[in-house]
Amino acid sequence: MTATAIPAPLVSEAPRRRIRSRRPVSLWIGVTILAALVGGGVLAIFWTPYPPMATGVGPVYGPPSLAHPFGTDRLGADILSRTMTAATLDVSITVVVVLLSLTIGTVWGSLAGFFGGWFDYATMRVLELLNSFPSLLLAMLVIAVAGPGLLNVVFVVALLPLPDYVRLARAEVRSKKNWQFAEAAKLVGRRPLGVLFAHIVPNSMRPLLTFASVNASYVAATVGALGFLGLGIQPGSAEWGSMIARGQEAILSGQWWVATFPGLAILLLAAAFHLVSDAISDSRDTGGAW
Fold it and tell me: For residues 183 and 190, what is the distance between their CA atoms, to the nearest angstrom?
């Protein structure tokens, strides 16, 4: 009596099911954290427990309590109200910067990779020039010259990761522009730009979106760092980095809550984007969908 062979799909299906069942976990955790931060920022537009810029609403350096869950700072301002208001600003800057860098970098890199020639050569030289400066130092120099302000921060922070988006888009388009679907589009009479933006770019977006999720955490940290150094939004405003800077001395005297809660907000925002990126990368590696 011969043994019956077990079909291959029955052997490999269980690990695949386990991969699919684990895959959404990081996505949903990341999305939940993002939703909480965005929800707090949207709520802060209409309501906060206390006026975020008001001083003397509580005791000086009051510890966390029922009246002030995040405590108060050296001016008696409510830290929870300021943290909620800062979420509106920091999350908005992060999203706008990532969308701006992703859009410009994708278009620029796709054109360079598709057409090549002198435009591709000039692109690579410009990217080498941008990469020759340390990122944070470049941001500090530009803002020191242009002055602090919302538009200047968005422009500078969007400029820093731009070379990475351009390189990634260029590499994806160069590798796919001779694939069968692109050649088929050319054979039916599609114009070059139509082939590029209707066929090649949509099939190249997943690695770009993965990188954008990782880059968002870097953007959040950079905005916080500039605020901490007093080079971000107007110093003293309700912004997480600026709040950490105002509370750093209080940590030494035991008032840990002043800098801890805005610092945790930056950490949670960065972690959420990393978790979303991990989910996108998981989907790409396993060839599946969420």
Answer: 10
Give this prediction's pTM: 0.83
Q: What is the DSSP string of 129-177?
A: HHHTS-HHHHHHHHHHHH-S-HHHHHHHHHHTTHHHHHHHHHHHHHHHT
Q: Where do the H-state alpha helices sit in the chain?
A: 8-46, 79-115, 117-131, 135-146, 150-159, 162-176, 180-187, 192-195, 205-228, 240-252, 257-286
Structure tokens at 243: 């709040």
Task: Give the residue extent of every domain in the chain.
Answer: 24-286
Alpha carbon 14 to chain centroid distance? 34
Among 114-128, 194-208, 263-277, where is mean pLDDT lowest? 194-208
β partners of residue 78: 72
Q: Which residues pair with 72 in a beta bridge?
A: 78
Q: Which of 163, 160, 165 has its CA nearest to residue 143?
A: 160
Q: Give the model's confidence band at 53: pLDDT under 50 very low, under 70 low, under 90 confident, else very high.
A: confident
Is 82 exposed, middle or buried (CB count within 10 Å of its CB: 0-12, 13-18, 19+)? buried
CATH (one of 1.20.120.1770, 1.10.3720.10, 3.40.50.920, 1.10.3380.10) for 24-286: 1.10.3720.10
| pLDDT for position 281 | 74
Structure tokens at 287: 């060839």
